[in-house]
Amino acid sequence: VVEPRFDGETLTGTIDVLDVRFGSLWTNISREQFAQLGVSVGERVEVTIEDGTRTVYQNLLTYAHSFADVYVGEPLVYANSLDCMAVAINQGSFAKAYGIGTGAGWKLSLTKVTH
Q1: Which residues have CB under 8 Å from 54's CB, separation 6+?
Q2: How many other CB atoms are found less than 10 A from the CB of residue 105?
Q3: Cα(104)–Cα(93) distance, rounded to whole angstroms?
Q4: Which residues of the chain have pLDDT under 50?
Q5: How far is CA 104 from CA 27, 29, 32, 107, in A?
Q6: What is the pTM of this model?
Q7: 3-state DSSP call for residue 39?
Q8: Closest by alpha carbon to 21, among 74, 70, 88?
Q9: Nearest to 76 by CA among 62, 65, 86, 66
Q10: E-strand stretches of the chain
Q11: CA 65, 78, 19, 107: dihedral to nearest 10 degrees?
Q12: Cα gap 73→41, rounded to integer Å
């Protein structure tokens, strides 16, 4: 088990669960830990996903209360039913769209966008 890490700027955890019904990626980063970034609902956060040393995905996503807060097909960051941070595509499969898996080798980093 790899614990989430916050270096003062970026919060990094692992992708522990793939919600197979919807293709969402569930991390081990709690909402409480995410609060350290100081990101408010509606603001953007930089999401980087790595498989070992390879960057698989990097983009700016909206931190949303729910899927209804973003357009169909738009990716988002949200707190899931376990009160941990998750990444998804509204009415799509994030995992399938970007070929992302789960486990200790899969790292997800969240950084507050400051510009």
Answers
A1: none
A2: 14
A3: 21
A4: none
A5: 11, 13, 21, 7
A6: 0.94
A7: coil
A8: 88
A9: 62
A10: 5-6, 10-19, 24-30, 44-51, 54-63, 75-79, 84-89, 103-112
A11: 180
A12: 19
Tokens of 110: 């969240």
Strands 84-89 and 75-79: antiparallel
Number of other residues whose CB lies within 10 A of the CB of residue 94: 24
In the prediction, which pLDDT does 104 show? 81
CA pair distance 64, 70, nearest whole angstrom: 7
User: What single-letter amino acid sits at 94?
Assistant: F
Question: In the block, which residue shows the tokens 């994030």?
Answer: 94
Q: What is the dihedral of CA 8, 14, 19, 20, to 10 degrees?
A: 140
Over the stretch 14-27, which tens digit does the pLDDT of each residue have?
999 998 888 999 99
